[in-house]
Amino acid sequence: MQKLIERTEYLEWLKRWREQQIIKVVSGVRRCGKSTLFEIYKNWLISDGVEKNQIISINLEDIEFENLTNYRALYDHIKAMLIPDKMNYIFLDEIQHVDSFEKAVDSLFLKDNCDVYITGSNAYFMSGELATVLSGRYVELKMLPLSFKEFCIGLDDLTMTTAQKFNRYVEYGSFPYIIKFRSTRKEARDYLRDIYHSVLLKDIVARLKISDVTTLENITKFMLHNIGNIVSATKIANTLKSEGRSADQKTVDKYLRGLTDSLMIYEAQRYNLKGKMFLKTNSKYYVVDTGLRNCLVKGSENDIGHILENVVFLELKRRGYDVYVGQLEDGEIDFVAVNGEDISYYQVSATTLEENTLKRELAPFRKVGDNYPKYLLTLDEIFGSADYDGIKKKNVLDWLLEPSVSEIR
């Protein structure tokens, strides 16, 4: 049996919300590990004294439960299994397959002895409609594929250097299945293409009722080519038109929303650091997994700067930050990371060993008139501390492998 990779931060989140009178929702792109996280958590519950009959687990993609896709049938099935004098832990995986699922979930939520956990992959489930149907009654854990630290733990290969592991991480991808079964390059790419087509056809085409799949694919590949670049619907439409593949701005907006709702693509809005306001146009976008991009976009090996940006963006999201692009009057800071009162700035560059490159990367920091932490992340090997008037330079691989808050505790 393959050893499960402990998703420590996500597991700690579930523990914190255990038996709280609120629905726990785990969202994330297809195959990022939501079902496995439930298995890890259920194993932990049992180790903590919970009896197996207190756990009710239903995966709605399993043919065994195909008769439960009606909300009333699902509720009646679970109600019959409840133990009256004990807490019941209810796990509903891929709940979007149940019509009006919120009626069953709400009824269980109202019971004092039901601790309810649900997941879903469908873009309908992930988008704003979730807030409408479960308004005020849920908390959400937003999952991503494996972090670099989790990838290294799962790879468990002492013959590889950290740099070699990172190269495999960005090339093969961070989906748990790929590392779990030690996939070859071809197997990894075949698997990633399958995820790509599943997301496009099941989570976007079906939900938005798209008939022109070719245009959707063209827009998707444009976005993957342009991770880390400022993008607008107008720019996409004009580019496609110049290549003889027309799509109006309204269509582009619709398809772009589908890509972000499906969690294949993430948006980083621009934030005006002087005016302290969000800019509604010309955002940057990043892909949920660089391996997914690599199997669809040729020549990405020459784009290490944007690939590094992508990895750092996702890691900041994993660490609980809202991430924005810092807009200055005559430049920008790659990322402004915000978590309540916790704010920090990040510049990302493959290398700053050349003096002019270093000056260019440090310059935006010096235009910011506050004392929040500022970090320059590169692939350069750094011995000891590197500090430029309070701006700390770190090796990005060391930064990715830093202990988490829960590990420090």
Short description:
The chain is an alpha/beta fold. Helix content is 42%, strand content 21%.
SSE layout and pairings?
Layout: H1 8-16, E1 23-27, H2 34-47, E2 55-59, H3 71-81, E3 88-93, H4 101-109, E4 114-120, H5 123-126, H6 129-133, E5 138-142, H7 148-155, H8 162-172, H9 176-180, H10 185-208, H11 213-225, E6 230-231, H12 233-242, H13 249-261, E7 265-272, E8 277-287, H14 290-294, H15 304-318, E9 322-328, E10 331-339, E11 342-348, H16 355-362, E12 374-378, E13 386-388, E14 391-395, H17 396-400, H18 405-408
Parallel strand pairs: 1-4, 1-5, 2-3, 3-4, 7-9, 11-12, 12-14
Antiparallel strand pairs: 6-8, 7-8, 9-10, 10-11, 13-14
Helix pairs in contact: 3-4, 7-8, 10-13, 12-13
Outline the structure in words.
By secondary structure, the chain is of the alpha/beta class. Helices cover 42% and strands 21% of the residues. Helix 4 (101-109) links the parallel strand 3 and strand 4 (114-120). Helix 3 (71-81) packs parallel to helix 4, helix 7 (148-155) crosses helix 8 (162-172) and helix 12 crosses helix 13. The chain is globular, with a radius of gyration of 22 Å. The model has no long low-confidence stretch (mean pLDDT 91).
Characteristics:
409 residues; alpha/beta; 42% helix; nine-stranded mixed β-sheet; five-stranded parallel β-sheet; 14 strands; single chain; 18 helices
